[in-house]
Amino acid sequence: MAKVHPNAAAVATELATATTRAAADQQPEPPTTVLTVWRKSLLFNCDGFTVYDANGDLAFRVDCYARRHAEVVLMDAAGAPLLTVRRKRLSLAERWLVYDGDAAASTTRPPLLSVRRHVGGLRVRGASSGKTMAHVVAAASSSAAGGGEAFVVEGSYGRRACAVRDARGDVVAEVRRKEAVGDDVFRLVVSPRFGVPLAMGIVIALDEMFVAGRGSARSWLRIGC
């Protein structure tokens, strides 16, 4: 009978662990999420958004009854609130805060994201290309967006061509123009490293900053955005 080396079991365990790790390292990264965003509510006489997934199923919806919005709620297909996007009052630069769920019942809940309009003509250090539109800061508790991380939004939301970049310059979410359908329908492409609802929260904030306020006293600031 062959004699078994006393360390054989430990070696076999180590080999199995190494194989498992290697297999895990080779697992493909989850695919990006591609949404079709229609800048229109399904409800009559409402502003908002209707968002479809890659299969054509309803993914998110936004229904706003007022033309000027101090608060916008992102809902799932069934109408349950996912995020509340609220304008911060008395801020020097236009700023919108993104809260988890329906934040109307609580004024002390910390935001998941802060989206601030870029002010001034200077480019931001670390920005890769294009015009800086806005700055996004994720709260430390927001793991879906990389807690505590800062992002920059570059490009033109009005032209449906802008990207959210992390500190390394990598694109984590992108608004892309959809040809032959006009500006009210566009694509939202989201990296698996970023939360899809949070990406929609940023889109809502950008829409309020650069589109919804046209015709107001500040509309001259929005020209070319």
From TrEMBL:
Pfam families: LOR (PF04525). SUPFAM superfamilies: Tubby C-terminal domain-like. Belongs to the LOR family. This is Uncharacterized protein 15A. The lineage of its organism: Eukaryota, Viridiplantae, Streptophyta, Embryophyta, Tracheophyta. The gene is 15A.
